[in-house]
Every structure is written in C-alpha cells, then in structure tokens.
Amino acid sequence: MNPIDTQSLMLQMRSLAAQAESKSVVDATESVQAGGDKAANFADLLAESVQSVNHEQHKAGDMKKAFEQGDSEMELSEVMLQVQKASLSFQAMTQVRNKLVEAYKDVINMPL
C-alpha cells in the first residue's frame, strides 16, 4: 500500500467539495432556465438530487466493502474521498431540505 500524503488528500477533498457545490448550482440554474412547468422542474430537480445522493452513498458503501475484503485495486485514499463526497452530498441535501421546510412553514403561517 502506498503512503498517503494527507496534505494532498485534503486539497483533493476541498477541490471535490467546491466542484460538487458549483455543479449543483449550475444544474439548478439550467433547470429553472429551461422553462416549462416550474413545479415539475423543481420536482424533477429534487428527485434527481435525492437519486444522486443515494448513488453516492451506495458507491461509497461498495468501495468500503471492497477495500475491507482486500481488493487490491481499491486504494484507501480513493475510498476516503468517495466517503467524504457521499457525506458532503448528504449534508447538502439535508440543508436544502431544512430550508424547504422552513420556507413551507413561513408560507403556511402567513396571514391571509
């Protein structure tokens, strides 16, 4: 197994986090600009987001399992990066959900 350079690993993780953040903003902007039924676009965007997070979680789980079973092609740094990527995507989805719930409560509590 190769020695792990923690500094370069942290830089890679920060780079991936920045890419994931900018990609989700660009995807959301493109979806809204596409026109059509905005509610359907939002529902589609939300469903795609949940599926993407689910895919990242399963991929991380599969990689961890392969590494634990001694797969020679699986590097620890790759597994760690995927686990961090899955964790960041889940945290982002949780924050979006919290904001949506908060906005829903604000709309419900508006006086008529």
From TrEMBL:
- Record's InterPro entries? FliE (IPR001624)
Localization terms from the record: Bacterial flagellum basal body
> Signal peptide: which range, if any?
none
Q: Which Pfam families does the record cross-reference, listed alphabetically?
A: FliE
Q: Determine the domain of life of the protein's source.
A: Bacteria
Q: Which UniProt keywords apply?
A: Bacterial flagellum, Cell projection, Cilium, Flagellum
Main subcellular localisation: other
The family note in this entry says:
Belongs to the FliE family.
- Protein name from the UniProt record: Flagellar hook-basal body complex protein FliE
